[in-house]
Amino acid sequence: MKRTLKAIAVVAVLGIVAAACGGDNGGTDQGSDTGTPSAAADLSGGTLRMAQLADVTAAFDPQKEYYSVTWEYYRCCLARMLMSYQGVPTDEGGTEIFPDLAASEPTVSDDGLTWTYSIKPGINYGDPFTDVEITAGDFIRAMERTANSKANVGGYSFYYSVIKGFDDFAGGEADTIAGMTAVDDHTLQIEVTAPTADLSYRLAMPTAAPIPPNGDAPLGAAQGHDKNYGRFLVSSGPYEFEGADALDFSVPAGDQTEVAGYVPGRSIVLVRNPSWDPATDELRKAYPDRIEVSIGGDNNDLYNQVKANALDFVVDGAVPPETIREYSTNPDLQSKINVHASDALRYISFNLLVPPFDDIHVRKAFNWALDKAGMRQLRGGETTGEIAGHIMVNSLQNNLLVDYDPYATPNAAGDIAQAMEEMKQSRLRARTSLP
Which domain holds residue 406? Predict the structure, then answer.
């Protein structure tokens, strides 16, 4: 069953719209990007109040984080890449990438091996590097940290082995990544070892966000922070961690004090990056002035806080089915629901080595008998997602299998007779009462 966005899109918009309509504490409706009510209103200013049950996975270190929630914090707020996304649903172009810090689409050589990116001039970092312009060498520095075996633990450096010399640098066999050249401050050239049509997509991931220089330190502001750069992250996006202006990179890494705006396991506070200029950024609206996120708590309690307008939304919770049903069936609340399907599925898994599921006919019978519509109803109804006919998400296959469903049953309610026919072919037939 295809999930809604992180399984929280429903209440996310419920809370945001409620805050905009009735809140008196600066709650901000960010709905215009996704077609929610109040799109024509002035949405700027105020504080967006969020909550999430669990902390991010790698303490906001871009070379380590491989979690969709953290990646959205980067995309919306903390990090700009050469190319990036608009933050809209798939069917509205959400999988398309656009120039971000790049001034335009890259130029690619006829053989597909050399990519050249022009970088927008005059864009500076957030605190404490507001006087430092983002230049081509900063992206090379990010890739060098991505290749650093001490800094990339648990990360995804394997995506960049296609860059000429990346693995040699990672293995200590070279002092530089041979395939990355800063032609000048605003021109970055990248050579790959084989045609790589999705290179711009790889460079749209957070590990490729620029890292500012810091004296002669090879890794710039990240030098000495192999395990904790997230708490010293220098922003290139519309927001930065509260307290970033107090960071002091002039002292050794061990003597530096981390930002106050991120306390692992407790809270995240983002404030505006004073260097960010909306005129240079067509991908982000950055409506609120401040974003406050509490970490931890009880799932049901957090959604009760959304209903009470004490929170605008919950980032990673599972919307209680009764809440979905309430807002889906109450005419006064239906306008406050906004659902976008994510590229994900919910499924039931089995250990195929353990009887009876080592028998393919038992597995087929289970698929015939499964009441998918009933399971969706238990989750909250049609709002929670579409019923899947196969394991791959249709949007990831350009809908090539959109009509494929080998176990289709009337109203997706299951077919016991068909399941019994399948069971007749199983090894269990002799031990059952099947005719």
Answer: 344-431
